[in-house]
Specification:
The chain is α/β, with parallel strands linked by helices. The chain has a single domain, classed as SGNH hydrolase (Rossmann fold), CATH 3.40.50.1110. It has helices at residues 16-19, 23-34, 52-57, 60-64, 71-87, 92-104, 108-111, 133-147, 174-190, 197-207, 223-238, 276-299, and strands at 6-14, 38-46, 117-121, 151-156, 193-196, 249-251, 271-273. Helix 9 links the parallel strand 4 (151-156) and strand 5 (193-196). The chain is globular. It starts with 5 loop residues before the first strand and ends with a helix.
């Protein structure tokens, strides 16, 4: 009789930087390729363009607390969201959250679980260092996460430093290092692992300036940056290098002109399959970027 696989339940909280390329599912595929005896189960709570402060307002903390959330607490959240929508009918995120919570309430008992890992995505809310909203709200979520014995991963996005065109000169590392010091301090404060995408993007730009990290016609991370990000979250999950993982392709979920499903936002193939060299380079860059971040974290 086959032995049951070990399971790992991972919740991703974020916005389109998590939704694009079905990032959570790519991490799941990488995890199960690197750890064949593991059943990684992923779920997401995503609101486009929203930050952790917005997730807190929209009741995402309830989904973190599934193991102990009461019917009364969920009903109170629904009532609060109904009030938000009544006061501002244009608040589409409150409407979306209200629909999510209303649909969830009847399923509360069957959805109960304790998470093993929760990934907290940043998005421009981490630019002010220790005074940032990310530094304020990540600890609020971390407290709920760690109370149930789960681990926290900070998925730090880097929209301000991603290049849409190949680079002809080395980028200035100073802003990246300053930001990473703040992320390292936050990670130490809440005992979190980090997917340090600013550092990893910098390493990629220094070593492979021919590669781009965002779309030309869309400000989001492109296939290359998405692959780097999935590898970095894998590395944070298992505290190991992603080198050697066989996963070699990424498919986006947004189409050219929102109609041509076989093309990405720049009119190129919606799926990118990396060459053996590119795959190896990107996986190595993630390891080196993670090591550089850990070295900086140890110094701070």
């Amino acid at each position: 009789m086959a032995l049951a696989k070990e399971t790992l339940d991972v919740l991703f909280i974020g916005n389109s930087y998590t939704a694009r390329h079905d990032l959570a599912e790519v991490v799941e595929a990488m995890a199960e390729a690197g750890h064949p005896d593991l059943d990684l189960r992923v779920e997401t709570v995503i609101y486009g363009g929203r930050r952790l402060v917005d997730h807190w307002r929209l009741g995402t903390a309830n989904f973190v607390r599934l193991h102990e959330l009461t019917v009364g607490e969920e009903e109170a959240t629904i009532a609060q969201l109904e009030k938000m929508v009544a006061e501002d009918p244009e608040d589409r995120h409150a409407k979306s959250a209200l629909n999510r919570h209303r649909a969830f309430l009847p399923k509360l008992e069957e959805q109960r679980k304790k998470w093993d890992v929760v990934v907290l995505q940043s998005y421009r809310d981490d630019l002010e260092g220790e005074a940032s909203l990310y530094a304020e709200y990540a600890p609020k979520f971390a407290e709920l996460i760690q109370e149930q014995g789960a681990r926290v991963i900070l998925y730090e996005t880097s929209p301000n430093t991603q290049n849409a065109e190949p680079l002809t000169e080395a980028p200035d590392p100073a802003p990246v290092m300053e930001k990473e010091k703040a992320i390292a301090a936050l990670a130490d404060r809440i005992d979190a692992e980090v997917a340090p995408m600013s550092m990893i993007a910098l390493k990629c730009q220094q070593q492979r300036p021919d590669l781009t990290l965002r779309f030309v016609n869309d400000a989001h991370l492109n296939h290359t940056m998405a692959y780097l990000t999935a590898c970095a979250i894998y590395a944070a999950l298992f505290e190991e290098s992603p080198e050697g993982l066989p996963i070699d392709s990424i498919t986006d979920i947004r189409f050219f002109n929102n109609t041509e499903r076989d093309k990405d936002r720049d009119g190129k193939p919606i799926t990118r399959t990396f060459s053996e060299k590119d795959r190896a380079d990107l996986q190595r860059i993630v390891r080196e970027g993670r090591e550089a971040f850990q070295a900086l974290r140890a110094r701070e």
